[in-house]
């Protein structure tokens, strides 16, 4: 799955030739990725510009999260002298650096910038979006991170407040497009009232190199799952995970990530993929369960495997999926049906049975949707229908198991460099690859990292969400 | 389960601490260890047949005889039944030896244990690059043919890969030299050059006073070197240094840094040993115990963060385990790797923010009054033969408790790898 432009952009001679000739060729940035298991100090030695507007109740949690993660803060004197920043910087022996918002004076280069807007109410508060980000926008290192934290728009107490919060939507999407060329992402955390301390998980994720291909996305954090209860090192130790479609691509990458974080992973794929599934399971000290997910007894076989060996399941990743592309007029009924069976019917049957009979409290269900399910694609009526249906499922299920603290989330990958996209005709593939803010396709690891984020206890504030891992795709945005 | 046996510290002894590549040049860590143990046995008039075991600490271990403790026992002609092991926990190795001995006695493994540590930086082995070792293996371990000779030649290029490299005190995981780590701590915790120099000055003053007053006379024994010289004094203490003189020294680890040779501990050769017994055995043999160890703790912190902040976590933990508070401590002895590191640790202990965010405590652990901290100086003035330091601190503090009406002494040691160690001594 080679990407010629990606290679050219990393070759200095080619790069200078293209630049000298003024060729209209996009130069995709090399994205920073983190392949290591998660660490407590995941932001160690990262310089983060921080600003907060008004009297924010989330500010303490934000600063504590950044301090514990080892970040070095840069803020103006008002923020630097606040009680919280003083306390946290003393505790971690990391005094904040000074921050100027005059773009002309800005000499420092930042790994990330966080703007806390949880207390904005007035139209005049919009100005802080402009002044803060204008001050740092040219100072991001490559693969930088911009994060805005606010209340969700629908929690606004007035039309004006809702307008101000909604402004972030357009702002962050545009910022993401502007910053994409050096690999910098821009995302939005919508923090419900009472969920302040649960910001740690999503904030760390969005500021780290684990969210390389996530940009222009909102993540909503709620407190419906109760008080904070998680650790950051080997967070999946002692947990049992099951991944369908584990043999290759996103599934295999997910298996490795989950195992790396401490989980025992049951790798599920079709019997004809025995060899590669077994090899993967051996590599991660996991288990194999070979079953066609569309077979009638698939759910029963999986349930039995789990209960016989482990007594329960903590993480279910519904990844198995197929494409059978044809325009609707040419689509034979069996092709329509195959896609619906694998991508939707199997997901329904297996999830419902396992959640009912095998899943432990605090469980995590992550279903793979697709950007096609959001925006549609010619030739993919079947696929898009099934993937849109998955979003419906996740949203419905998320409300049904709150008492058991099981969360249901969906991941919608954009153009990811896998067997599926490699099979595309070259012109279509080339266009698909470039039509996003980062000018490149994502890697299976990028999706795996997002799935793993939802599998970790630290994602407890997120339920019923659809996170797009699409590089800010122009399609369906 | 109630504790049926109690271990006590009966005596302690050390060699004079001497600048590396000085008087002790020809004495390796085993010879230094022998000198300290020999003095201990002599001072206590202990019959060697009573010794059940030696637990010895070492950081720079001799590659061909890494179990230094056993070599000491054999060289001193202790009964062959006196078994021995060697422990290594970087600069906390000496304290590790003592607490391991205490644990062994309290568990009933032994009645009389000699615990201590020694290090000779002067005799650090220069490591051959692994590439050279692998290339030479056919010659060293088998029959080399002419073909092998050619292959060896071929493997030796480029030459810089096979040149022996000088040992340095750098973290394996981060590559950071320890002084750079302490320099970073000084910057992050805002420990000024002046504060560091003042602390170093006090260390020298107090050590010099202790020596002049004869306070160390009963815990330091003379060492005969192979050239026939007798070393009777610590030779790194500078009684005449002043804050002004210290202020003139140039920073070592960073151009605009604050750590100098004056406010850091020097490379040192030396050894220290402590005699541990079960309470009943001490009584039976007619010894008066000096102190016992009430609690201890070892912790790890991220070496990529503040490498030497460990004692700020370990000391509160040892206090918690003993059910005591910092204010109950009559004496506090913190190993002085660098003045900046001690001051970073004491600052953290005094910080409520640190207690709340890092220790999960409501209140700060507490301030340490200047007149209780390192009352007889520390590693900056006396020197720091890595594994000897812990045993030196235990000796000095145990004797201080025994000689005064003070009851508790808290020890804190930082160590490479992001380790922290602490122990609480209680007057016997």
Protein architecture, described:
The complex is a heterodimer of chains A (477) and B (428). The longest helix of chain A has 25 residues, at 333-357. Chain A is built from 17 helices and 14 strands. Chain A is of the alpha/beta class and 477 residues long. The radius of gyration of chain A is 22 Å and the shape is globular. In chain A, the strands form two sheets. Chain A has a seven-stranded parallel β-sheet, sandwiched between helices. The model of chain A has no long low-confidence stretch (mean pLDDT 93). In chain A, strand 1, helix 3 (59-68) and strand 2 (72-75) form a beta-alpha-beta unit. Chain B is built from 14 helices and twelve strands. In chain B, strands 1, 2, 3, 4, 5 and 8 form a six-stranded mixed β-sheet that branches. Chain B has a four-stranded mixed β-sheet with strand order 9-12-11-10, with helices on both faces. In chain B, strands 6-7 form a two-stranded antiparallel ribbon. The longest helix of chain B has 20 residues, at 193-212. The chains are: A alpha/beta (477), B alpha/beta (428). The interface between A and B is medium-sized, with 17 and 18 residues.
Features:
heterodimer, A: 477 residues, alpha/beta, seven-stranded parallel beta sheet, B: 428 residues, six-stranded mixed beta sheet, four-stranded mixed beta sheet, 14 helices, globular
Q: Which class do the helix and strand fractions of chain B yield? A: alpha/beta
Beta-strand residue percentage of chain B: 15-25%
Q: Residue share in helices of chain A?
A: 25-40%
Distance between the termini of chain A: 25 Å
**Assembly type:** heterodimer
Measured by residues with Cβ under 8 Å of the partner chain's Cβ, the largest interface is: A-B, 17 and 18 residues
Amino-to-carboxy terminus distance of chain B: 23 Å
Strand order of the largest sheet of chain A: 3-2-1-4-5-6-7
Shape of chain A: globular
Q: Helical proportion of chain B?
A: 25-40%
**Can you tell me the residue ranges of chain A where pLDDT is under 50 for at least 5 consecutive residues?**
none
Low-pLDDT regions of chain B: none
Q: What's the average pLDDT of chain B?
A: 93
How many strand units of chain B? 12
Overall 3D shape of chain B = globular
* Secondary-structure element string of chain B: EEHEHEHEHHHHEEHEHEHEHHHHEE
Radius of gyration of chain B: 22 Å
How would you characterize the largest beta sheet of chain B? 6 strands, mixed
Overall pLDDT confidence of chain A:
93
Question: Which percent range describes the beta-strand content of chain A?
Answer: 15-25%
